[in-house]
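Q: Hi! First time asking for a complex rather than a single chain. Here are the components, and I think there are two in total. Is that enough to go on?
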Amino acid sequence: MNILAFYKKGIREASGRPKVVLILWAANAVFAVPAYVLFSSLLASALGPSGAAAGLMKTADMNILFEVLTTSGRPFGMLFAALLVLVLFYFLASIFLAGGILGVLLDGPVPGRTGRTFFGSGAAYYGRFLRLTVYSLGLWLPAAALFGLASAGVGAATAGSTKEQLSFYLTLALAALALFLVFLIKMIMDYARIRIAAEDTDKVLPSLLRSVRFVFKRPGLTLGLYYLLGLTGLAIFGAWRLLNSAIPATAMAAVLAAFVLAQVFIAGRGWLKVAYQSAQLEVSRTHRPEGQPKTAEATLRVPAPQVPPAATEDRPS
Amino acid sequence: MKKTVWLLAGGILLLHAGLAASLSRRVVAYDIKARLVPDAKSVEGHEVLTWTNESAEPVSEMQFHLYMNAFKNNRTTFMKESGGAHRGFRMDKENWGYITVGSIAVQDGPDLTGTITYIQPDDGNPDDRTVMKIALPEPVAPGGAVTLVIDFVTRMPRVFARSGFVGDFYMIGQWFPKVGVFWNGAWNCHQYHAHSEFFADYGSFRAELTVPDAYVVGATGKRAATVKNADGTTTYTHIQEDVHDFAWTACPEFVEFREPFSLADPPVRTEMIFLVHRSHVGQKDRYVRALRNGLEFYSQSYGPYPYETVTLVDPAPGAMAAGGMEYPTLFTADTFSWLPRGIRLPEMVTIHEFGHGYWYGIVGSNEFEEAWLDEGINSYSEAKAMDKYYGADRSMIDFLGIRIGDVPYQRLNVIASGRFDPIVRNSWSFVGGSSYSINVYQKASLMMQTLERLLGEDVMSRVMKSYYERWKFRHPTTADFVRVAEEASGRDLGWFFDQVLYSPDKLDYGISDLRVYELAPPDGVFNGTRTESAPDAGPPGRGKQPASPDAPKTYRSEVVAARFAEWIFPQEILVRFADGREVRETWDGRERWKRFVYVGPEKAVSAEVDPGHKLLLDVNFTNNSRVLEPDGRAVRKFALGFAGWFQALLSLVSL
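A: Yes, that's all I need. Here is the structure of the assembled complex.
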């Protein structure tokens, strides 16, 4: 199979899992509710009974917005600190969600089991995925060091330079390097999670190391697929912003329409996440782990398409 | 006798013709020969200065600015005040800047080098050598003149606080011994301070600038000659009359563009010269458009641009500390090759710095003592020009859906500022750099915009044109501006200027309360007789029930307008009622609050002070209005939008 085939497979699989996408959206929305409540109460408190609020519905009067930020700077600062904590919790929750997605994908299309499998898998893999996240520091730290070295090199090369384009392009290259490293490690982590779930193994660190080897042995395939899916995500984002810009949010109905559009985008992100996992799972299945015979089906679990399987030790419940 | 009369008449005619050609009273005449020595990062100079005593008293000593000595060591007044940093850039301690006066003598007369002393009129700091004093062999009589010959060497610092070098880029400003201003019977010659700019007398400048052949040169005034020398250098001669300073720049990486500019009304004909660093050539059209806009706006709003050239210098990358500075007929801009068009930094800087050519260059404000006369009036002018050409709601930023105008940006600085300093104060006396800039730039600009909204655009235009016309090529003070404003507007504006210019306080009016009661029918004892409500009016004490459901209701609406800060401004209050009726009230604003009461069949639904937002100095527009039933839609709109972005962030950080 080539990159495009894996991509199509991932997209097809994700499109066939609306319940998973719904769960991902709902989890995201649940975490966003406190942000909405805190922000709206803070803004309402800052505006008070002022008539300026009505004007803000029509135009974003920067005079008023700057005032709100200035006079309520401390509460807004506290809000953003609280939201950072919320982001951290969401990150921890996303470890659970990642397990859920993989569980459902590994379980195959079993009607009526999606929710049970999702949450059961999320719980079953959580400890191992959390350990994996901690172990991933072993990848993040060298990556940070590499980036630091590159950054220092660029700094030395451009210090006192009057060649602005050179500085600009080197800075762009640095940003590209940072993104590349982030995506690379995220991708390795994806494969490691797939391996842990598929093999239902407790050997987290070896799984991570084998995933590193797996990715580095076929960088064209793994990176190509990852970036193709990334481009899809970029297209979804672009479509959201484009459609959003066409909505003149000067009436409540338009505001709600824009909000619904945002929710569609968030659901699209969830859908893409499933597509990532599904396509990469397929890559893992097609390119068997090293040392395993190609016929050893048991090594990587494959979906049991029709018959609901009985609970076994290597399957989360 | 007849011959004498003819000679006298001829003399008067000649004098008149001379004055008519001259835009200013030329107190100084500089003739400078300067050679750039790139290896030494220095300029070797030979200056012949003729100074005319325009005062009514003899002058026996002279004072000079040696500005470059501000960067001589870490004990100078500039470095102490700034902590070695200016506008976010730090002084490079490997490249101090200084000026050494090798000799000074009266032309064909005695050497005065031995009389040199360094004085510190502002702070007595003995380590500061930015003001030099010499004793003259004999006093210069009123109307008389003295010609001095000065040899000096200026070592340029690595670009810092407007001047210096980066690589082979040189911005050479405040670089020669510049005589102070003999004003009101004394020398006005302040030290170079961290938060101050300059003040000098008008006159004529001629400079021969010699640089290695590869260098492209720009300078104050028009180019009179270019001579290639045998030693691999080129000498450029620049001449300009009726200016009070001379600056120049040199860099082999400059690309020079020249474009004519003309205007029919008022008549303007000048040449725009752009020295754009090779890295920024892609931004050239932004500079060109902005300078055209500036020339048109300032010429039409205040008076025709009077010089034959205007030169825009685009500093080299890494030399931003030289950007955003004005000199007569020449200014430095700022940009980056990658800067998106929606971020209008080069436009704003170009219009602003060009505008200084009016309020520092043509109107010779004393920036040491009353910096707002330049910075404040120019920030006001810049905001008007930016709003006119780029749109009021997006004149600063129009990028990725974010739109910010120049005026809200200026106002943001003022509302967030403290109450430490008034606008009018010696530049070095402000509590800090941000207090200086907020007061003399933004607060003064908002003052001017508030004044314009109070007087009306036409009257304000008259004020500004009168001020410019009366004080061009002269040295005005704050009192002169106030006088012109009162004369041109025909109004007593003392109440306004006394508060805003001389008090550090703030302006904040608002509506502190809006209440509506339903008036109950009469109930109780009136004139000894018990009067009862109708049977269905409810129990005593709950008299708010109407006598009958069909009976017309009467409401008592109370609006309390309040003064939350110190400045006292007359207020207009707009009250709206449920039936759409509007009532406008006036209040002198003196007391801390004033209540307005309305009794009638309709409730007051909203009240607002300063409904037209004329008073841009008001630091809180949010409290200006109050509604009976707050409109929560905007809150929901922003909160939903925020929640959407937060969700997007969450989806990004998730595994």
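A: The longest helix of chain A spans residues 164-199. Let me know if you'd like any chain examined more closely.
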